[in-house]
Amino acid sequence: MENLLKKLDLTSLRLFVAVCQEKNIARAAEREFIASSAVSRRIAEIEALIGLPVIQRQSRGITVTPVGETVLRYAQTIIANIEQMSAELSRFSSGAKGQVRVVANLSSIVQFLPEDVAAFSRVFPEVSIELEEENSADVLRIVEEHGADFGICNAVTGVEAFEQVPYRADRLAVLLPAAHRLADAQRLAFAELLDDSFVGLRSESALTQLLTQQAAQAGRQLDVKIRVSSLDALCRMVHAGLGVAVVPEQVGRLYLNALDVRLLPLRDDWAVRRLVLVFRAREQLSASAAALVGFLGREA
């Protein structure tokens, strides 16, 4: 019996199950598209391995012996397990099951990803998503170093080295204390704010670098009074009157009813930024990662 694991194959078990179900070798052979002699040979091999008969051949068919009933019970379990494994593996290959690691910048996480990931999860409930926040430059670095399946970031310098799929438009606005001198304006140009002190994000953030660059092009230096690590803290600092801030417009809208602030659109052309999905090569994406990229790309 110790040779069963090495010598008993799935094809023989499948043919034996068919014979038991049909109660006839010829009908089982027809169902399985194989010659009757080949089916008989497979069953003879099973009996030789076990050393006992599993069926009794009769003129009009077969009957299953008590030994055969035991083999049949286990054979059906084995075949069912293989079929279940095949079905589960097919969900991996179709993207319906798996794990995806995404690295994304703060703007995309705060504004768009919660709703988009929730919608994706309703379609693909067995895909697990690990989401990590980084600034746009680090998003590119991590994707390049194979630390994530794909990234989401602003179209910063270096993004051209990756395959890209458009994701969303990130519109910037200025958040002012309600008592600010420009609070009654409808729209503002960034240059009108350069005499103010700013509350800003960390120096490595794409937004901070953009504002610093735009101030330099205007021949000015950005006066950042306080730096914080989150957009929530940024908005609360403005509420406290510690400066003005440029924030993604949708983020600013979240705080209009909770804080004593005003939100005004920036009319500068550069105030509309592109968010993109970046990855090394589409053919390198797992099925689950490709499904998520396709879903988020359609959301654009």
Describe the structure.
This is Transcriptional regulator, LysR family. Keywords: DNA-binding, Transcription, Transcription regulation. InterPro entries: HTH-type_LysR_regulators, LysR_HTH_N, LysR_subst-bd, WH-like_DNA-bd_sf, WH_DNA-bd_sf. Belongs to the LysR transcriptional regulatory family. It comes from Paraburkholderia phenazinium. The model has no long low-confidence stretch (mean pLDDT 90). The protein has three domains: 4-92, Arc Repressor Mutant, subunit A; 97-168 and 274-299, Periplasmic binding protein-like II (D-Maltodextrin-Binding Protein, domain 2); 170-269, D-Maltodextrin-Binding Protein, domain 2 (3-Layer(aba) Sandwich), CATH 3.40.190. The radius of gyration is 33 Å and the shape is rod-shaped. The strands form three sheets. Strands 3, 4, 5, 6, 9, 10 and 11 form a seven-stranded mixed sheet that branches. It has a two-stranded antiparallel sheet with strand order 1-2. A two-stranded parallel ribbon has the order 7-8. Helix 2 crosses helix 3 (25-31) and helix 2 packs across helix 5. It has 300 residues and is α/β, with parallel strands linked by helices. The longest helix has 29 residues, at 66-94. Helix content is 45%, strand content 23%. It is built from twelve helices and eleven strands. Helix 9 links the parallel strand 7 and strand 8.
